Every structure is written in C-alpha cells, then in structure tokens.
Amino acid sequence: MQDHNSRSAEQAARQRAQGAPANEVPIWLPWSGVLARGRDVAVLLTGAVLYTTSLRFDLTVCGRGEAARDLHMASLGRPDANGDMLCVGVAGAGGFTATNVRRARLSSNSDPAPTLSPNGGFGGHGAALTRYLLQPIPPAGAVTLWVAWSSRGIEETATEFDGSALDELAAQIEVLWPVEDEAPPWSMTPPEPKLPRGGWFAAHGQPS
Fold it and tell me: Which residue pairs from 82-86 have beta carbons closer than 8 angstroms and sit at least 24 positions apart in sequence?
C-alpha cells in the first residue's frame, strides 16, 4: 500500500509539473461569458477545456482607454507595485477551492491542495488572454468562478457553471499514449556543479 501511495503521489507531482496533458484529446465545455466588468475593463471566460486530470480556463481581460495598457501582467494575476491584482478563484463541491493568490501555507496537511496556475497565453493592446490550469478537476457538481480586481472597480463576483457531468466527460477523453512513454524535463538529472576544490561549498553542498 505504501508503494502504491508513493507512486500515486509521484504521478500527481508529475502531472502538476507537466501542466496540460500533451497525450490527450481534450473536451471543450460549453462555458463562456462575462465574469465581471468595471467601467473600463471586463474579465471574460472565453473557453473551458477538460482533460482527465485538469481543467483549463481561457481567461481574457479587456480594457479601453488608459485601462487598455498593461493587461498581460494583470491577466496573469501578478500584483502591481501597490499590491493590486486580478484575483481568480474556483470553488466546487465538497469544499473544493483553488486560487491564483499565493499565500503562506496555513495548514500542516501534507495532502496536495488543488492548484490554479497560469499555463500560457498571449495578448496585445486592449486585450490579453491567459490560460489557467486547474488541477485536479473539481468533483461533479456546480463549479463557481470567482474574480475580483478592486483597483479597477471589480469587487468579488461569482459566476456558476454546470459541472455535473465532469466525471462522465473525463472518462470519455481519448488518451493517445501512456504518460509513462513521455520523458518530462523534470526527471532529467542535472550535471554536477563545478565548485572550488577543497573549499567550503565542496564540503557543505546539499546532496541532490
């Protein structure tokens, strides 16, 4: 049992490191719409893509006038010089929650918590798209997307989507080949560092 749990934890870590599976034919969900808007900005869900172990949200931030500038960093959820940022979160059944807000861990629970992380994107003047990857997929039931951007006039706003069929749809996803056939970069052993011979670093270096 311990070996099985160890392999399961290793597989979960590998999936999180790799991001969206490259060996699957995902399913596009019929989820889209305006999540929230201020006077000169709007936050849109322009796509939702389901994989067997993750759910990708295509989040587009639009702006006009002066608000059309610097939208790419905002769409990534990066705080500006004042600490203001576009906050994005997901809530699901059974207390499932994930957010792009990074805070110090408040719990000693060793179980990996759901994560919501940027997974690529693009943009130009007036609009920027960021793909957020949610791992794992939420339990079947309502899936609520939360957004807030106080400095741009967007208070906490929730939009609910129907996720009652997520488990059934995930089971229908075509897997092209086993993930074990892939060689993720994280598994490669880095070369030994070149250290001063007989020096302090050579004596105190941490084992890899």
Answer: 82/151, 84/149, 84/150, 84/151, 85/149, 86/43, 86/61, 86/147, 86/148, 86/149, 86/152
DSSP letters of 110-164? Answer: -SPPPEEEEEEEEEETTEEEEEEEEESPPPSEEEEEEEEEGGGTEEEEEEEEEET
CA 138 to CA 165: how far, in whole Å? 11
Q: What is the pLDDT of residues 139-177, one digit of tens each?
A: 999 999 999 998 889 999 999 999 999 999 999 999 999
CA distance 22 to 194: 35
pLDDT digits (tens, 9 = 90+) for 121-135: 888 789 999 999 999
* Cis omega (within 30 of 0) for bond into 136: yes
Q: What is the pTM of this model?
A: 0.76
pLDDT tens by residue, 37-95: 999 999 999 999 999 999 999 999 999 998 888 788 888 888 877 778 889 999 999 99
Half-sphere exposure of 150 (CA within 13 A, CB side): 6
Domain boundaries, the chain: 2-175
**The CATH number fitting domain 2-175, selected from 3.30.450, 2.60.40, 2.40.70, 1.25.40:** 2.60.40
